[in-house]
Amino acid sequence: MRCSPDLRQRVVGFVHGGGSKAEAARRFKVGEASVYRWLQPGGLTYQRPGPRRARKLDWEQLRRHVEAQPDQTQAERARHFQVSRHCIWNALHKLAVTHKNKDGLSRT
């Protein structure tokens, strides 16, 4: 559960006012690890997990890449474009690009 910004500021203020980190954790009923994390630079601001900055995938460039190198996996494409594999999967799905077995052999 995420704590409110007000609670975080009160905990940090308590420690900066001379209280111990362990006492702050007990008094405000939060974990000691949270107290330590909030005291780090930038610790009071909540950051969503995941990539730190948004990357935009150029779908036309992806389409050309698929045509030029049809045998690459989604993971290889994700590394090439520096995005997640799910981003590549989603873009290929929306572009209606599918991986077809072109050699005529069944893979069972």
Description:
With 108 residues, the chain is an all-alpha fold. The radius of gyration is 24 Å and the shape is rod-shaped. Among the domains are: 5-39; 59-94. The mean pLDDT is 84. The protein is built from six helices and no strands. The chain has helices at residues 5-16, 21-28, 32-39, 59-68, 74-81, 85-94. Helix 5 (74-81) packs across helix 6 (85-94). It is 52% helix and 0% strand. The two termini are 46 Å apart.
Write the layout of secondary structure elements.
Elements: H1 5-16, H2 21-28, H3 32-39, H4 59-68, H5 74-81, H6 85-94
Helix pairs in contact: 1-2, 2-3, 5-6
SSE succession = HHHHHH
Q: In percent terms, what proportion of residues is strand?
A: under 5%
Count of individual helical segments: 6
- Rg over CA atoms, rounded to whole Å, is 24 Å
Number of strands: 0
Essential attributes:
rod-shaped, 108 residues, mainly alpha, 52% helix
Summarize the structure.
This protein has helices at 5-16, 21-28, 32-39, 59-68, 74-81, 85-94. With 108 residues, the chain is an all-alpha fold.
